[in-house]
Write a structure and sequence with these properties.
Helix content of chain A: 25-40%
Low-confidence stretches of chain B: none
Distance between the termini of chain A: 12 Å
Number of helices of chain A: 7
Shape of chain A: globular
Strand content of chain B: 15-25%
Number of domains of chain B: 2
Number of helices of chain B: 9
Number of strands of chain A: 12
CATH class of the largest domain in chain B: Alpha Beta
Distance between the termini of chain B: 31 Å
Strand content of chain A: 15-25%
Radius of gyration of chain B: 19 Å
Mean pLDDT of chain B: 95
Number of domains of chain A: 2
Oligomer: heterodimer
């Protein structure tokens, strides 16, 4: 059974979520959503999971604000953020490219990033497109800063960065990413060439491990059926 | 003697004067699309749109139709159908003032508005470029623990809240279910205009199962009946978003000519249905 890039990402995110007990998935996030459903399945159900935009997988009764109010007291272990631009200090830009406010390319906006990046202990940055236009030396607009000076209340922050080419860890003290693994079919050289900032790496970087037959079966079966409620188009694209 | 708030969509539109600060909910939770169509037909100018905390096709159409001077939002996007083209164009033109926010800051400002206090404190956000752009946000020192900087955001009290809900009773109480953001929107706003799928018999406040999820008539200024009034967006538990219609809008609105053609057709459809 060959593993598709999407399946590898789902399995990798599920591995990262293995120890998390309270996970919230934001809007328009089919891969993190599938991964969280998989992680919950592999944990024997020992995970409280909220998928925004899903009717079945949300227990909120206080409206949209509940995402933030839960995070406020540390009730959310993991959350996913992306960005039109991400730089080497893990600053993220969801507002636009070019000079603000008349950005040449305007993206939707910062959503809850400027809050959740501070309040959720394990924020996983997820961006499939791994190119120099995304991974820039310095973002044009800081929607949410990667790190904060001492004295600023910040229980959470960036933890990992997963792209279509590899998996990085973020060191909040040193304000630097380090490359943990390269996805099969990709190379360190290719990642260096497509990343606009410097990052740490060992002499030999391992490949991202692929899911076994059991996990793959879950992704192609039960998880595909579950995520279809929220993301029918995406689910249809997952192989049977 | 109570003033019954029942009216037509055109009267709801007439209740949004030029320059009004108007609060709207985000896509899944009761966007008053049919009322927005009546509003665009009236053609107000200079609206200040407060999105709780984001918006989609509603904001994009109002911006494209030239009704909006200022938008206060955490994002404008068409969900799975991509970026909001009229919003992006207006940003490039410099014809739209954007008060860029982050979701919980809009919720916090509205909550301050509900409580009648001048501001609300909020964790996070410090160090974001959003802060310097907002005259109504400030970082202060925690008065109870000096040396702890914290963001405060000014209260938001919209002129009109505009939303769509499953039903109202004849006393003017409005059932909102789990969409609790609509309650705070109504409480913070000077007036609240609601469209509903249907008007039901009985009194929602006497229904123990539904009373807790009901906006009391005291907050409600106008109610108009509009079956499928959130379409092409959805209404939880009633109907799903119409993906094909939203995709068609996303494609058409990429150019101003395409948007204009879509708008003409949309406005004509309402006239036919009325």
């Amino acid at each position: 059974m060959s593993v598709s890039p999407t399946e590898l990402l789902i399995a990798t995110v599920a591995r990262l979520l293995a120890d998390c007990r309270n996970v919230v998935i934001g809007n328009a996030s089919p891969i993190p959503g599938s991964a969280a459903l998989l992680a919950r399945e592999l944990a024997g159900g020992a995970m409280r999971l909220t998928i925004l935009g899903s009717r079945r997988h949300t227990d909120f009764t206080d409206g949209g604000v509940e995402t933030f109010d839960r995070a406020a007291q540390g009730r959310v272990d993991a959350f996913f953020l992306g960005g039109g631009q991400i730089d080497g200090e893990a600053n993220i830009n969801l507002v636009g490219a070019g000079e603000y406010p008349r950005s040449d390319v305007r993206w939707p906006g910062s959503y809850g990033s400027a809050y959740l990046y501070f309040m959720v202990s394990k924020v996983i940055l997820f961006r499939e497109e791994h190119t120099p236009r995304v991974f820039v030396p310095r973002v044009d607009f800081v929607s949410a800063p990667g790190t904060s000076p001492a004295g600023v209340h910040r229980p959470g922050g960036p933890w990992k960065l997963l792209t279509g080419r590899g998996l990085f860890a973020f060191d909040r003290g040193r304000k630097r990413f380090s490359l943990e693994s390269v996805h099969p079919g990709h190379t360190v050289e290719e990642i260096v060439a497509n990343t606009g900032f410097d990052f740490d790496r060992a002499g030999a970087v391992p490949y991202t491990s692929e899911p076994d037959a059991h996990v793959l079966g879950l992704i192609r079966g039960r998880i595909r059926d579950e995520i279809a409620e929220t993301y029918p188009k995406f689910a249809a694209g997952l192989a049977a | 003697m109570p003033i019954l708030p029942f009216c037509t969509l055109d009267e709801i539109a007439a209740g949004v004067p030029d320059g009004a600060k108007i609060a709207v909910p985000n896509d899944p939770y009761g966007v008053a699309v049919a009322a927005t169509r009546a509003l665009v037909r009236r053609g107000p100018r200079g609206l200040h749109l407060v999105c709780l905390p984001t918006s989609g096709i509603q904001a994009d159409v109002l911006i494209g139709a030239g009704c909006v001077a200022t938008i206060e939002t955490s994002a404008v996007a068409l969900g799975e159908h991509g970026t909001a083209p009229r919003f992006a164009q207006a940003v490039r033109d410099g014809s739209l003032r954007v008060l860029d926010a982050t979701c919980p800051a809009i919720h916090a400002g509205l909550l301050a508005g509900v409580k009648g206090v001048p501001f609300m404190a909020l964790r996070g956000v410090i160090g974001s470029d959003l802060v310097a752009r907002r005259a109504d946000w400030k970082v202060i020192d925690n008065p109870f623990a000096p040396g702890d900087p914290i963001l405060v955001v000014a209260a938001i009290n919209p002129d009109v809240a505009l939303c769509h809900a499953p039903c109202a009773d004849r006393q003017g109480n409005v059932f909102i279910g789990r969409s609790r953001d609509l309650m705070r929107m109504a409480q913070a706003s000077r007036e609240t205009s609601v469209t509903v799928e249907a008007v039901v018999d009985g009194n929602l406040l006497e229904d123990r199962d539904r009373a807790g999820a009901t906006i009391p008539a005291a907050y409600v200024t106008r109610i108009a009946t509009a079956p499928r009034g959130a379409a092409p967006l959805g209404l939880p538990g009633h109907y799903d978003p119409d993906a094909a219609a939203l995709a068609r809008y996303a494609r058409a609105a990429r150019t101003s000519e395409g948007f204009r053609a879509w708008l003409d057709e949309w406005l004509a459809a309402e006239a036919a249905a009325a």
